[in-house]
Amino acid sequence: MLLLAIETSCDDTAAALIEDGKKVLSSLVSSQEEVHRRYGGVVPELASRHHVRNIVPIVKGALEEARKGWGELDGVAVTRGPGLVGSLLVGISLGKAIAYALGLPLVGVNHLIGHLMAIFLEREVPFPFIGLVASGGHTSLYLVKGYLDASLLGATRDDAAGEAFDKVAKYLGLGYPGGRVIEALARKGDPGAIPFPRAYLSPDSLEFSFSGVKTAVVQFLRSHRVAERDLPDIAASFQEAIIDVLVSKAIRAAETYRIPRVVVAGGVASNARFREKFEEEAAERGIEVSFPSPHLCTDNAAMIGVVGYHLLLKGRRDGWEMNALSRWPSPGEGR
Ligand code: KG4
Ligand code: ZN
After folding, report:
1. Topology classification of domain 2-116+299-313
2. One fold for 2-116+299-313 and 127-291
3. Cα 146 from Cα 334, distance rounded (Å)
4. Residue 265 CA: which ligand 1 atom is closest?
5. Cα distance between residue 306 and residue 22, in whole Å
6. Could you give the angle at the alpha carbon of 283 between the alpha carbons of 281 and 288, nearest 5°?
7. For residue 177, which atom of ligand 1 is closest to its CA?
């Protein structure tokens, strides 16, 4: 089954051609980082306008790179939510138009379930597993029993982990998006230099809270004379605080549910220090942890193709009335 997958939930315009929900024939991502950098965050109106400009060349590019023609497609999978409605609607509208014109089935996919299933583009992981999505918009733990069976165990009460990276980078004058810049700076710093707080909430809580550590960095900057040479230590200490909480909550979920397997996804999962620390701690406890390659952790359409394939395989379809969902409280079947 050859699927065209489209992803436009935030500021990346992405399209991919996926065979049998596994084999990536092409996966193109057009980043809008340059557009939003000067505003220090994603400007929704600008994001949708740039999606409109980029989406057709990106979809055509995905077909060309895969050396496939329109007539060879068997279906269209498109991110339905959660995300920015104006951005989502661009991908959904084009997905509908292509499916309608070619007489193909159309299916809307949950972006977060897409992140969780990106791992299957590279390797098999037996179900059940604990899934952790740490991105710019979400930080959530799931109990995943199948491609279309993920139940939410806990989410962030305030900022997402990636959002905290972005905001702290902004306060430190490092630009947008913050994750990669902080990671690079942190490599030269001491993660134990400043004891920024870790919000574990109650001992067995699987919820997150990252606004406290963000505020602690702001207070530190206000109460100390910070020079350029202090930035690596601040970045490393902040990053370590976020990583410690993510690792410990995911391991707690694995132990609580007695499932010795964790899959980590979302933009923050591309962080090398996070991957290294998680692997160390998981190995000590006999837990197997899997991370997709960094380019499959950040937003892409290939991951949407994985979920789309399993939905279509089960006979699921969406109609022309399908609308974007800015929030998607319970992902149910991954759509
Ligand atoms: O999954 P993603 O590409 O988009 C969303 O669905 O949000 O995640 C983007 C987020 C941004 O907040 C970005 O700062 C963060 O992931 N991020 C990182 C790294 N690369 C991206 N955070 C920490 N370390 C990184 N290397
Ligand atoms: Zn994402």
Report:
1. Nucleotidyltransferase; domain 5 (3.30.420)
2. yes
3. 10
4. 1
5. 6
6. 110
7. 14
How many A from CA of 179 to the centre of ligand 1? Answer: 6
Q: Which fold has domain 127-291?
A: Nucleotidyltransferase; domain 5 (3.30.420)
35 by Cβ neighbours in 10 Å (0-12 / 13-18 / 19+) ranks as middle
Alpha carbon of 179 to those of 8, 33, 44, 164: distances in Å? 20, 12, 20, 9
Task: Give the residues surrounding ligand 1 with Cβ less than 6 Å away.
Answer: 10, 135-137, 162-163, 165-166, 177-180, 183, 266-268, 270-271, 298-299
Tens-digit pLDDT profile for residues 249-293: 999 999 999 999 999 999 999 999 999 999 999 999 999 999 999
The domain spans of the chain are 2-116+299-313, 127-291
Residue range 180-233, pLDDT digits in tens: 999 999 999 999 999 999 999 988 999 999 999 999 999 999 999 999 999 999
- What is the four-CA torsion angle of 273, 274, 277, 282, rounded to 10 degrees? -150
Which residue among 296, 298, 328 has the greatest number of ligand 1 atoms within 8 angstroms of its CB, and so is best to mutate?
298
Say how far residue 65 (Cα) sits from the centre of its chain: 24
How many angstroms separate the alpha carbon of residue 298 from the centre of ligand 2?
Answer: 6
